[in-house]
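Something for you to look into today, if you have time. I want to see for myself how the chain folds. Leave the record below and I will have a look.
***
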Amino acid sequence: MTSTFTRRRILQTGVAAAALTGMPQLGWAAGPVVKLRVMETTDLHVNIMPYDYYRDAADDTVGLARTATLVKAARSEAKNSLLFDNGDIIQGSPLGDYVAYRKGMKKGDVHPIVAAMNVLDYDCGTLGNHEFNYGLDFLQNSLGAAKFPLVCANAIKADGTPLQKPWLVLDREVTDESGAKQTLKVGVIGFVPPQIVQWDKANLDGKVTTIDIVDAANKHVPELKKAGADIVVALCHSGIAGGERKGGEENAALHLAKVDGIDVILTGHQHFVFPGGKEFNNIEGVDVKAGTLHGKPAVMAGFWGSHLGIVDLELTKEGNAWKVANFRTEARPIYDRVDRKVVAKVGSEAAVVAAVQADHDATLKYVREPVGSTAVPIHSYYSLVADDASVKLVAEAQAWYVADLLKTTQYKDLPLLSAAAPFKAGGRGGPNYFTEIKPGPLAIKDMADIYIYPNTIRAVKVTGAQVREWLERSAGIYNQIDPAKGGEQELINSKFPAYNFDVIAGVQYKIDPTQASRYDNDGKLVDANARRIKDLTYNGKPVTDDQVFIVATNNYRAGGGGNFPGNDGTTIVLDAPDLTRDAIMRFIIERKEVAPKADGSWSLVTPPASVTTTFTTGPNAAAYQPAGIKVEKMGDAPEGFVKYRIVG
């Protein structure tokens, strides 16, 4: 297939971008001036078509096919441009699952996301943490057909050699502002969260190790400069977080910005947007408006193709050295929200659609295959404020699966609990990012809707004290409600990911948000005297610190993901080979029909009368009532959400 985008080994010459001219103008420059546009996609997660496979409906908020149209326009605006991807490309949608579990990837095959990206003529990419979810062979087979190089400086093979090239230098001919040709050497280096060795231990143990992101940069950036790089672009599949650097950070982009020699940071992993985004307000060293980290230009282009990240650089040559004299950053969206409705800003790029149409059609057929039925609706609209049937279905299936595997082991008589979290609960995913399944047939797409990640099942052996701490860590999702202050107060901490709000089925407890959180968003103990978990019981009796439990969970949590007490890899007693969603599917197939029910095993302490305790959820929540809690709709909230208050 012929690409609609010409290969840009000699970078595009055209009309100078209006966006570029929007930068503050330089004064007199002694040497040549080059304007270079650096573009980023990140966290695509196999979202190529503007389609939501879970809802089986078109979706104008996602899709590389739409981002591609922005790329085409952005290139036409600039004399010189480069396009990079920041990782997490081969996992994350039912299309990715179809390729991994039904179609397969042999050496020489072309993964649909790679086929789409090849159309766009990327200059380079890096690896994301989810690249490792299906194993190293699948990873190498999937990326083997890429027509662009990949770099990763902090993932090392067991024999000490890099998993990918740590860095490279792109030699590019560019056009300066006088129309003359110049040679520019662009250094590119990539990074992945070092936690991949915990999160995908089954795939990486004994095969891959990682080093700290900043340590890797300090080692390799001088090599890049020695190799002649005029400027250095860091492809950092790691987010932005403040605080003192201790080493090994999952979100290390801000610390990376302090490394001498790095000029531009393309960041991701957190699924946020930068510049902009309230998540980064009040972090020292971060300028949300200007889009800088410690003064260096940076961008985070959302997720699933929602934005194109753009960093416009103005480079001046002083002697033989190019310097960044000016810059401007932007996260350009593929859609707007007008009157609470999504309005597409661009259409799909035909060449990208053509590259994946066959796999898209096959995925639709795959996800529509029936596996059973549900007698009741399954939704997650109230899953952060009340016991929830969608979470309980996962917990019940996990417990069923683990009980069968442990029935002939030394653990068979220990009480079995099951931890599960509401993955689709709005938040950064938007007002439609909720599970909602009507009564009736359940298809494969519904399994992926109920449980969106390709986690495998694990079981851990923990004490009653660790169960309590586990729940305290989960309870950090709530802002502290202040009865003395009164008035309207928002309950949910928007910076706390819903996938870290574990509900543990099998015990009974209450959560009191008027108390301070014992743990911060990253799982660090911040208040040893704080206690939000109340009345924790098992079979009607208080849980004691020395009781021993088996808890069914997933590989991410058991291996240390989220920094939960009792989960550091040492407490694992069962490392199962099967995906959680496959266990859910088997559970449903065996029963033929399920009717998951929230049984009130946990609840919030009744909020004080002096406070209007609010939370937001999706518009369709109005069709349902939560179990064990009374709520009242208050009105519309920003970005298409709806505001509710808890009344009892």
About this structure: The radius of gyration is 25 Å. The first strand starts at residue 33 and ends at 41. The longest helix spans residues 350-367.
